Give the backbone structure.
Amino acid sequence: MPAEAITLPVVWCDFGGVLTAPVAETLTSFCARISVPAPALVTAMRTVAGQYGTNDIMEPLDTPLVSADEWTRQVEKCLLDEHHITADLSNFARDWFTGRPANTDLIDYLWELKKAGIFVGMLSNMVPDFEPYWPNMVSPDLFDCLVFSYQVGVRKPDQRIYALAEERSSAKPSSCILIDDLLENCAGARAAGWKAIEFHANDEALHQMRQWIGTADA
């Protein structure tokens, strides 16, 4: 018999910018580390993304459409040709995570939910080369399920990834909650029948979560 859909809330959380410091802060630190101005790097990444038919600078890496090694060579070439900047991106993933702080307050709250019997999953547009690094920031044991774009070949806000998350959690859309820092990903979740919190700060997000889940003292 097929598994019955669960009735408890199912919480799906993004990684970058939610369980970590804001992506803009990470980008600033990363660019300082590799001595490349952030506007030039973003422009080069957007140019390379355009070669793969997208304007999302991370899509070539997190679907993935290209290997990390080839992508770094293409971005380095673009920086040199268009910005006259010589850059070394060969350790992109390592340098991206160096000194990157975790959002411990939200992580602690998710542990409280898990201990209260609530399903907690990570739903992320994840880069394959990030795999050795993100578990150093948040334990994989926190999550009942991981749905990563590069593993399933589809990414937020495509409706297929929300349907896949529902299937893997045996949840109805109305039971699912997404915490994500990007408006378009939240809009995609809402279009799928989910609730969604566009993450800006812990206080705001935790207040909304406690109202929805009713676990103020969880």
In short: Residues 205 and 211 are 10 Å apart (CA to CA).
